[in-house]
Amino acid sequence: MKRPLVGSLAATLFAAVAVTGAAATPAAAAEQQSSGSAKSAVPAAAPDFAGTVALSNCSGSLVKMPESKDTDPGLVLSNGHCLEEGMPEPGKVVVDQPSQRSFSLLDASGAEAGQLTSTKISYATMTDTDVSLYELDATYEEIKSETGIDALEVQAAHPEAGKAITVVSGYWKETYSCSIDGFVHELREDGWTMKDSLRYTNECDTKGGTSGSPVIDDASGKIVGVNNTRNENGQECTLNNPCEVDENGNVTVNEGTAYGQQTHTLTSCIAAGNKVDLSLPDCKLPKP
Predict the structure, then answer these.
(1) pTM for this predicted structure
(2) Of 203, 206, 213, 209, residue with least CA distance to 230
(3) Which terminal CB of the chain, N or C, has fewer other CB atoms within 10 Å?
(4) Which residues pair with 54 in a beta bridge?
């Protein structure tokens, strides 16, 4: 796993532990950018940057759930390893932790449409998945009124293999277009294990700073995952080199392959008012 891009003292202190889709140092990331490794040329119909956000060290998106109301406080989706205090240890789950964090909200062209501010981390973990969900100090209708930007909707259904997707990085203002190659029973990286992960086809050669980017289904425009890691140099199950483990315990290494975590699991854990409720009967997210 790569560390998140250093945008704060906390990110620096925790630089030794973060996920591949996560990030490199600013210098390394800039070096990757100049090498032209990102696939920024996408079809005209592909998702744009509207509703995505740039964090100090990662990417993310302003999101709503299928049952979210315009009067609910907005939510920002990113990775668990992008938290300002560093990556949660295996088994740790963060719920309703106060957090005043700023996000740059982007318009369709990638220009800044406004600033968003969180009041708390509603949920975050790197156990079974790699996700963070921040609650904002403004409602969707207030954000729309001030910026003209709508939130992206999180799909409630499990995504399908073969579907065309776009990973949209608010940090780099770059997009990566490919397809869902399949699903991974267990994705292991250093001490972390993620389940039912998205595997991309090789066109999505993500890089540092793209962690937390929404994975958008091109046909529906809905979010089906959150980008988080990539096997950098063919090592097995080490930091920056996730490996795949099947139901029988067989290990496979796919050098250069990138992965994301499904987000439909979030939708069954959100109650009225956009509040995370891990006691809901269909909620399968890890609990503290």
Answers:
(1) 0.88
(2) 206
(3) C
(4) 59, 104
For the chain, percent helix, then strand, then coil, each to nearest 5?
Answer: 10, 40, 50
d(CA 98, CA 103): 16
pLDDT at 2: 59
Under DSSP, the state recorded for 230 is: E
Phi, psi values for residue 167, rounded to 5°: -95, 120
User: How far is CA 244 from each of CA 3, 6, 158, 165, 234, rounded to the nearest angstrom?
Assistant: 20, 28, 20, 21, 12
Longest Cα pair distance anywhere in the chain, in angstroms?
Answer: 52
Q: Taking a C-beta distance cutoff of 8 angstroms, is the pair 192, 252 a contact?
A: no
For 269, the token pair is 């854990």
Closest CA to 22 of 46, 1, 41: 1
> Per residue in 132-167, pLDDT tens?
999 999 999 999 999 999 999 999 999 999 999 999
Instruction: Please give the Cα distance from 74 to 48 (Å, whole number).
Output: 20
Distance of CA 276 to the CA centre of its chain: 18
Average pLDDT over residues 247-253: 98
Q: Report yes or no: 174 and 40 within 8 Å, Cβ to Cβ.
A: yes
Range 81-112 burial, b when 16+ CB lie within 10 A, else e: bbbbebbbeeeebbbeeebebebbbbbeebee
Query: Under a CB-based contact definition with an 8 Å cutoff, are residues 139 and 146 in contact?
Result: no
pLDDT recorded at residue 276: 98
Reduced to 3 states (helix: H, G, I; strand: E, B; else coil), residue 274 is helix
| Burial (CB count within 10 angstroms: exposed 0-12, middle 13-18, buried 19+), residue 4 | buried
